[in-house]
Design the sequence.
């Protein structure tokens, strides 16, 4: 009996996440309501709340599922990166833009949720994703080993600034209609500028 209940709970969770993902993309996170998600999923509104405590927790779960697919792409690229540290960083963030710009409304909703003030522990954690930060840190550590990056550089601060620029650029997708290629080109210029602060060969 317990196994059946668990299977039903997992099935409900899957339906809710699929419905929420569709609605967040179609009409935006702010417009989508729990009632609309429940109707799209074909479940009772109460069933949504027994599975997720809030709409933002649904967004987090949707993004966590997407992250697995993103990291599959990043993990496929990372071992083959060659050249200077700047080029490696540009390649990683270009993959990130290409992935997230397939569903730009979803990612911008995720970014916006980072600026909510929760009563308890924050649900959304842009900039604190250990796997992404680890990939960037590995590139920077390799840069130190290769003499590209200063050994005394504050790498955590560099990653924070890098991701801040990355996230801020999405406003241009919404406001000016920039696509992933244009965002990547802008990010390339920003990385070159930011990297100057940790470069071992700084002018």
Sequence:
């Amino acid at each position: 009996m317990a196994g059946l209940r668990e299977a039903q709970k997992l099935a409900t969770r899957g339906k809710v996440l699929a419905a929420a993902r569709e609605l967040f993309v179609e009409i935006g996170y702010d417009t989508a309501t729990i009632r609309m998600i429940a109707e799209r999923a074909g479940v009772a509104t109460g069933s949504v709340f027994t599975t997720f405590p809030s709409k933002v927790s649904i967004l987090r779960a949707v993004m966590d599922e997407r992250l697995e697919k993103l990291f599959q792409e990043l993990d496929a690229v990372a071992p083959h990166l060659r050249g200077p540290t700047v080029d490696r960083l540009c390649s990683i963030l270009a993959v990130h833009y290409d992935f997230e710009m397939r569903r730009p409304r979803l990612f911008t909703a995720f970014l916006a949720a980072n600026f909510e003030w929760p009563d308890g522990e924050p649900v959304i954690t842009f900039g604190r994703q250990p796997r992404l930060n680890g990939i960037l840190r590995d590139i920077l550590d390799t840069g130190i080993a290769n003499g590209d990056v200063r050994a005394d550089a504050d790498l955590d601060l560099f990653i924070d600034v890098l991701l801040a620029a990355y996230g801020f650029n999405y406003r241009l997708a919404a406001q000016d209609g920039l696509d992933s290629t244009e965002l990547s080109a802008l990010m390339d210029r920003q990385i070159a500028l930011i990297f100057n602060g940790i470069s071992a060969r700084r002018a």
Notes: Residues 1-52 form a domain with the Arc Repressor Mutant, subunit A fold (CATH 1.10.10.60). The chain has a mean pLDDT of 89.
